[in-house]
Input
Amino acid sequence: MAVPKKNQLVGLDIGSYSIKLVEIDNSKKGMILKNFGTIGLPHDAIVEGSIKEMEVVSSAIKNLYKNLKVKNKNVVTSISGYSVIVKKISIEKRKESELESSIQEEAEQYIPFDINDVNLDYEILSERAGEGGEEQAEEMEKDLMDVMLVAAKKDIVDDYVSLLQLTGLNPAILDVDAFALQNAFESSQEDISGCYALVNLGAEELGINAIKGGVSIFTRDSSYGGYQINEAIMSKFDVSYEDAEKMKLGGTKIEAKNRADMEEIFTSVVSGWVNEIKRALDFLATTYPDEHIEKIFVSGGSCRIPGFQKYLELETDIAVEELNPFVNLQINEKVFDPKYLSYMAPQAAVAVGLALRSIGDK
Ligand SMILES: Nc1ncnc2c1ncn2[C@@H]1O[C@H](COP(=O)(O)OP(=O)(O)OP(=O)(O)O)[C@@H](O)[C@H]1O
Ligand SMILES: [Mg+2]
Output
């Protein structure tokens, strides 16, 4: 379906390490990557999804807009972290109008914040008979409906909206990282009927989204990420954040006497990540004993930490694959260096998923 140009949105993933911008054109011949770029942020500007330095982040966005010559001011961005709760709930079947008036009350028990402090959104996933099937439904339990609840703390939502307004942009949609990632995943795959885990490992956040047949069944965000390695390097070798980043990414030659310490830092942080992912998968296995995760798709810059993917595969006994959000986009190689895109692919997943919003649902 061709969408008029004016409906298109700029996908802006405002991460704690860098901001990523993606524009996608929808043509008769398919989706075309129109624009992609990133800009780094100083380490303290955003901490675990909350904006600490409005002005700094705002001028970074302005610079990114200028560098990439972006004209469109309508933006879709996303939030994540402990201020956002995504939960699938099963409640008694009811009419849409009744759901609207009762959702707040239903949601209260699932949300660890005061209900007055959150923005609540929901989507009906499916209506189904009680566990015993249609016939026994009356005796067993009432018919149920699955509803996806999304609750975000108002202060975080307000911060992101203010940030974009301060930057002179129009926040058209505020999404959630987990859903944007899922969107990118779906557009990159031919078949999404199975059960998969999407793992996004950024600088300060580890996001896990388990999906089945294209519907999210479990999400969790934890405070893990690549920055843990920087922190460990900074304290072990008494270096700055920037130097630690260079050492981490292999830009600085590590002296022979320090190699064992570096190895140890990598191993200990990576095993912490893998354990956290395993905990989530164990929880999933208990909650959905009949489901079987076929594959783990990893994204986020830190999924490239040497050894992580292999170790995750070994420990979970599940195949691990890197999510490439560009794979089904048409790419003009005169404009975009394929090497650069494949290097950046894991970091671009959320932003691509956001940019696809204008073309897809919602
Ligand atoms: N090639 C690489 N190998 C290992 N780590 C990398 C690589 N490239 C980037 N990183 C690390 O990935 C992290 C950035 O990833 P990403 O861009 O996904 O995070 P973010 O979205 O900005 O942060 P968050 O979502 O956690 O707030 C940084 O810690 C960075 O050091
Ligand atoms: Mg991120």
In short: Residues 15, 202, 300, 350 surround magnesium ion (ligand 2) (CB under 6 Å). Residues 259-287 form the longest helix (29 residues). Residues 84-152 form a domain with the Dna Ligase; domain 1 fold (CATH 3.30.1490.300). The chain is about 35% helix and 30% strand.
